[in-house]
Please model this.
Amino acid sequence: MIQKGLKGIVAAETLISHIDGENGRLFYRGYEIREITKGFSFEEAAYLLWFGHLPDAEQLSALKDELKSNRELPEYVKGVIDQLPRNMDLMSVIRTAISAVGGHSGYGWKPSVSQAIRLTALVPTIIAYRKRQLEGKMSASPRNDLDHIANYMYMLNGKVPIAAHMEALETYMILTLEHGMNASTFAARVTASTESDLVSAVTSAIGTMKGPLHGGAPSGVIELLNEIAQVGDVEMVIREKILRGEKLMGFGHRVYKTHDPRAIALKAKLLELVGVDEWLDLAMDVEEIAVKLLAELKPGRSLYTNVEFYAAAIMKAINMEAELFTPTFTASRMVGWTAHVLEQAENNTIYRPQSKYIGTFK
Model:
């Protein structure tokens, strides 16, 4: 029996993460995601995925230092970006810049954690450099007094973010570090299984993430929030959309049959920030009313908010343009991709599935 898209087929054993779709739970290395987002930073969560355990103070300091020391873009990479057409999408820019890094920096088999850290450090700088270049602004050099997420936001806008916005984005990026054998992670592992280098593996993943069925930006949620803000009546807008049979963007998930644990964790963080930003407050109101109306008008469907819903609210609150959504997702998922490539390399078997010929014979 053919499983199109390999749906339901187990292709690898992993120690990295576990998704319990039936019960709405997500684990990183055995730690439930809410535990991670409540008490740990982006760097600590990344360390956990790369090394298999949480860092002590010395290990965390060393990781932060290594990330900071690898943030600067080499001049030749800046030159490559400078030569790219202005209308080239940002995901293609990231893919091209990362390829340039791999072509000059001695990447090869086997991949190393140091390579993973370097690529993770570079992606935010690539995104920020390109953004400010297109705006006709001087690039904002990385600041070593700022941690990973705060520095990313600083490089994008040229100013240190307020704590509430930084905390919200950091929570989102922790939640999107890793999510099992999704399409882009599978692409990275397939490439790595040929004993190709880490850069080739992650450029495969970036190309896969670029597809709208995987890494598409939550622009539909932004449009929904904008419409509700303009009309001023949450219940009326939501009720009319449901009755017209429109898909309510930001609700429901293909994997989770109940609450998306990432949405729950993100909401918990945003509850700490109530009153700080109007868009975050609006998102809370929309969720409460929409879940009630979905239960009333679509009984038995169990439709709840997914991580994209609150991600959209965060991006709106911090004034992040829609074209930065998927690149920002990529900046966090680089950790998960590289963790999977490192795991693949430790017990490698090349992926070689079969296909069934359905044509005719002449």
Summary: The two ends are 26 Å apart (CA to CA).
